Automatic annotation (TrEMBL):
<dbReference type="GO" id="GO:0016740">
    <property type="term" value="F:transferase activity"/>
</dbReference>
<dbReference type="InterPro" id="IPR027939">
    <property type="entry name" value="NMT1/THI5"/>
</dbReference>
<keyword id="KW-0663">Pyridoxal phosphate</keyword>
<keyword id="KW-0808">Transferase</keyword>
<dbReference type="InterPro" id="IPR006311">
    <property type="entry name" value="TAT_signal"/>
</dbReference>
<keyword id="KW-0784">Thiamine biosynthesis</keyword>
<protein>
    <recommendedName>
        <fullName>Thiamine pyrimidine synthase</fullName>
    </recommendedName>
</protein>
<dbReference type="GO" id="GO:0046872">
    <property type="term" value="F:metal ion binding"/>
</dbReference>
<keyword id="KW-0408">Iron</keyword>
<keyword id="KW-0479">Metal-binding</keyword>
<dbReference type="Pfam" id="PF09084">
    <property type="entry name" value="NMT1"/>
</dbReference>
<feature type="domain" description="SsuA/THI5-like">
    <location>
        <begin position="56"/>
        <end position="264"/>
    </location>
</feature>
<comment type="pathway">
    <text>Cofactor biosynthesis; thiamine diphosphate biosynthesis.</text>
</comment>
<dbReference type="GO" id="GO:0009228">
    <property type="term" value="P:thiamine biosynthetic process"/>
</dbReference>
<comment type="function">
    <text>Responsible for the formation of the pyrimidine heterocycle in the thiamine biosynthesis pathway. Catalyzes the formation of hydroxymethylpyrimidine phosphate (HMP-P) from histidine and pyridoxal phosphate (PLP). The protein uses PLP and the active site histidine to form HMP-P, generating an inactive enzyme. The enzyme can only undergo a single turnover, which suggests it is a suicide enzyme.</text>
</comment>
<feature type="signal peptide">
    <location>
        <begin position="1"/>
        <end position="29"/>
    </location>
</feature>
<dbReference type="InterPro" id="IPR015168">
    <property type="entry name" value="SsuA/THI5"/>
</dbReference>
Length: 352
């Protein structure tokens, strides 16, 4: 089982922790912990869950569901495994049996995991639109795919696939200089790159805290629409624990519905309780929660409920650019995607 020390989410997202550009040693030690359980409910089923990142506001709705007893109401105990720089990939944790449910930030990473182990099945997604973005200076803004031509683009090694796909799906010949950088936006501030990959929920906020006038454009606006923080499990686990997963997702959905109405609550729970050892900034966490909640909602969620996914969207919108990025043998969604859990959750309508 390989660790995720250099995975893209660490390099992109660490800057959001506590408003700092670097992770403190204490935080590094905390990332990828052994897991913590919700308040134990006698006779309840246990769902071990591998999160996509550390226990911050990104999972505000889960913390609200814990705090308000929604999991207990559903007779579900949850053991939360934090992601982070010292954590293995969610795909490997679920495939190995340590966690029952995984959540992954990068859809293409999950697709690769499903290709390697076709027992993995996705059944819901937190984000309807990924927060992954290209960030540039307002003094030399990059607003369109054509603006990337001839530019120096910073990111982690491997991001070239995204850039090539942006050019390809927009009918342009790839023409850029790739600059390997970490998560610190300093190269953009100093002008060492013309644009960098980051998250509009993190790097953008850090830059603005420093007074940097940015232009942030989601990668979906460059032609790479995609889900993020996708939930998945083994097919055998879904088949054997269907009712438990319905209860688990119903509690989670209730928590997120409250978080959307009361965005400060989840931020406070992250800072003071679930992520109390991370040194999080309450102001930054409040900002992040408001931004991310916009990405969680779409016409689909408004009509069918939070966390819903569309196989047609994946086939028609996501698979074309994954193919343009060089991937082949993409999974058969009739096997690797299951909407039945959330269909049961929202049997009476999109609001619980």
């Amino acid at each position: 089982m390989t660790t995720n020390l250099s995975r893209r989410s660490f390099l992109f997202r660490s800057a959001g922790i506590g408003g700092a550009a670097l992770l403190a040693p204490s935080l590094l030690a905390a990332c990828g912990d052994a897991g913590s359980s919700s308040t134990s409910t006698p006779g309840a089923g246990l769902v071990r869950t591998q999160l996509a990142w550390v226990k911050n506001v990104e999972f505000a709705g889960m913390w609200v569901a814990e705090d308000k007893g929604y999991f207990a109401d559903e007779k579900v105990n949850v053991e939360w495994f934090a992601g982070g720089p010292n954590a293995p990939t969610a795909e490997s944790v679920v495939a190995g049996g340590t966690a029952n449910v995984g959540m992954t930030t990068f859809f293409d990473q999950l697709i690769d995991g499903i290709t390697a182990d076709n027992s993995l099945v996705m059944f819901g997604t937190q984000f309807q639109d990924s927060p992954l973005a290209l960030i540039s200076s307002a003094k030399a803004p990059i607003r369109t795919p054509r603006d990337l031509t001839g530019k120096r683009i910073g990111g982690q090694t491997g991001n070239e696939r995204y850039i090539d796909a942006i050019f390809t799906v927009n009918g342009l010949k790839p023409d850029y200089t790739f600059v390997p950088i970490g998560f610190d936006p300093q190269p953009l501030i100093e002008g060492a790159v013309d644009a960098m990959f980051g998250f509009n929920t993190n790097q953008t906020l850090i830059l603005r805290e420093q007074g940097f006038d940015d232009v942030t454009v989601l990668t979906s606006e460059f032609g790479l629409p995609v889900y993020a923080n996708v939930l998945f499990a083994k097919r055998s686990y879904i088949d054997e624990n269907f009712d438990l997963l319905v209860s688990y997702m119903r509690a989670m959905a209730r928590g997120w519905q409250v978080s959307i109405e009361q965005p400060d609550l989840g931020a406070e729970l992250a800072v003071n309780d679930f992520g109390a050892d991370l040194g999080l900034s309450l102001d930054q966490q409040k900002q992040e929660n408001r931004i991310q909640q916009e990405l969680m909602q779409s016409d689909l969620t408004r009509s069918s409920g939070l966390f819903r996914m569309s196989a047609d969207f994946i086939e028609d919108k996501v698979y074309p650019w994954l193919t343009a990025s060089g991937r082949t043998n993409l999974p058969d969604l009739s096997v690797s995607f299951d909407d039945s859990i959330l269909a049961a959750v929202y049997a009476n309508g999109p609001v619980i």
